[in-house]
Specification:
Length: 449
Amino acid sequence: MANRQLSLILILSVILADRGFGQGENLRQANSPIEERPNIIVVLADDLGYGDTSVYDGWVQTPNLQRMADEGLTFTDFHTNSSVCSPTRAAFLTGRYQQRVGIVDVIARHLDTPPLDPSQRTIARVLKDRGYQTALFGKWHLGMQSSSNPVHFGFNEFRGYLDGYIDYHNHARHWHHNLEIEPQPGYSTHLITQNSVRFIKDNSHHPFFLYVSHEAVHLPFQTPDDTLEARKPVAKEDRWKRERIRPKYKVMLEEMDKGIGEIFSTLHDSGIADRTLVFFFSDNGAIGAGSNQPFRGGKFSHYEGGHRVPAIAWWPGKIRAGSTCDGMAVAMDLLPTFAEIAGAKLAKETPPGSPDDDRTPDGISLANVLLSGAEPPPRRVFFGYEPKLGTAMRDGPWKMIIKEDRGQLFHLGRDPGEQNNLAETESERAASMRTAINRWKEETAYHAP
C-alpha cells in the first residue's frame, strides 16, 4: 500500500511539474496555454490623417478598416507621442517618452541624428521573452546602420527598409531580409501584406507578435500603376500640386486597406481570429494630400492634427463590437498594454545611468479599456519636439503649446480646432502648465546607456 501511494505521489509530481507548478514563474509562463498568450498584430500607417478614412467620416472609403471598427473599438482621442516618424516609433516600441531614449528628431542621413540604442527594451523583446515569434515587415526608421537593424531589438524576422521612405517600386538597394539586402520585386504595400500573410500562416499554431509597418501613405505618392516603365515626366511646378497627388493618395490608402482585409481573411482562414488582437493607428498626422479634419495642423505640428490620429482595436469575443473610447490614450501605452495581455512582467526601474535604466514605461496599460470598456484614467501627457516645434501638454481638456517662450492655451472640449488662445484669460492655469512642462523636460533628459 505504501509503495502504491508513493507511486501515485511520484506520478502526480510529474504531472504538476509538467504543468509548471513548483518550478518558478518563468516555467509557468512558458507552459501557459496559448489562449493566455494571444497573438498581437500592430498595423501602422504612415502619415495618415485623422480625417482620411471613412471610419472617421473621411473622404476615402476604407471598408476593411470600417469592418474592423464595426467589430472592435474606435478611439476618438488617441495620440502619437510626436508628429513625425522616428520619435513616434521610438515611443511606441519602448513604451517611454522618446526624449528618454534619445530620439527627438527624424532619423536621417543628412541630419546626422543618432539611432535608437539596441539596449532599449522594446515590445518585440518583451514578447519574445514571453515565448512569442516576432516579425517586422515594412518601415523601421530607427537607425540605418547594420547595428540598428530590427533583429537587434527583439525581432526574429525583418523584411523591409531601414530608411524613412523609399520608392514604392524601385527599392532593390534598400530592401532587407534580416541583416542582408535581399530584393523583393513588387509594390511595397503589397509586399508588406504578402510577407505578413505568410508569417501568420507559418505561425498559426504558435503565439506571435507581428508589426505591419506600412509605407503608405507617405510620399512619394505612387500607386501600383506608377511603375518605372509607366511613369511620365512631371514638371517641377506640378510635382506636389494637390490636384495631382490627391488621387494617388486615395489609391495608396485603398491598397493598404485591401491589405488589411487580406490579413483579417488569413486570421479567419487559419482559425486564430478569436485569439488575435489587432491594433491599427497612424504614426502622425497627414501632410500634403491628406486630411486632418476637424483638427488644426498636421505632420510637424503640435496642434491636434499633428498627433491625434485614427486608432482601432479588434479582438473578436474580447473587445465589444462597435464600441468607442473617447478618453485620451497614447501610443506609448501599447507596450504596457501588450505586456499585461500577454502575461509578461515588466521589470522595475533601476538607478539612472545603469545599463538597464530603460525599464519603467511612461505609458499605462489599456487592457481594461480594450477588454472591459473602461475609460483611460485622467493624466498629464507631454508632446516634445525641441527646438523645432517646442513642447505641448495635455491635462484633461486643456492643451498648452510653448514654442520660443510663446504660450498658447486651448480648451479642446469647447475649441477642438484650437482657434481661441486662452493663455491671457487663464493666466494662472497657463503658468501652472508651463511649470509642469519645464519640470517634465528636465525629468526626461536622455542618459546614454
